[in-house]
Amino acid sequence: MEYNSIGPEGAKVLAPALLANASLTTLNLDGHPLPIKQLKGTEPIESLALSRKSLGVKSAIVIASLIGVNASLTKISLAKNQLGEEGTEAICQALQTNSTLKELDLSGDFRIGS
User: Which of 4-8, 30-34, 55-59 ranks highest by mean pLDDT?
Assistant: First the structure.
């Protein structure tokens, strides 16, 4: 789904600004608002369910940049979205810097290679 003209490269540029912004609470890139403060840990939560939200590559890139610094999140579900190969790779790279995330759900029909 395409709701704006921001592509994956734009999401990569946007991500660091989200880390620095203390007041933004949500961001909608693919049709569902992302809970920015919960994703980056400024409003700590242990579990976040983002399955079946029609999230795409752009959202996955932003999610990856934020969970990489999150010190409270232990479980996130991204099942049944369209993260694509690039989005899935970004999430996997974020796992290298996040030491608290113990459970990641990518099950379902999240399309890789399409």
Answer: 55-59
Cα separation values, 18 from 13, 34, 66, 111, Å: 10, 11, 8, 26
Q: Report the candidate in 72, 102, 104, 100 with the shortest Cα–Cα distance to residue 87.
A: 104
Question: How many whole angstroms separate alpha carbon 47 and alpha carbon 6?
Answer: 28
Residue 94's nearest CA partner among 3, 5, 19 is 19
Q: Residues near 2 by Cβ (< 8 Å), separated by ≥ 6?
A: none
The number of residues in the chain equals: 114
**Structure pTM?**
0.88
How far is it, in rounded angstroms, from Cα 82 to Cα 86? 11
Cβ(103)–Cβ(74) under 8 Å? yes
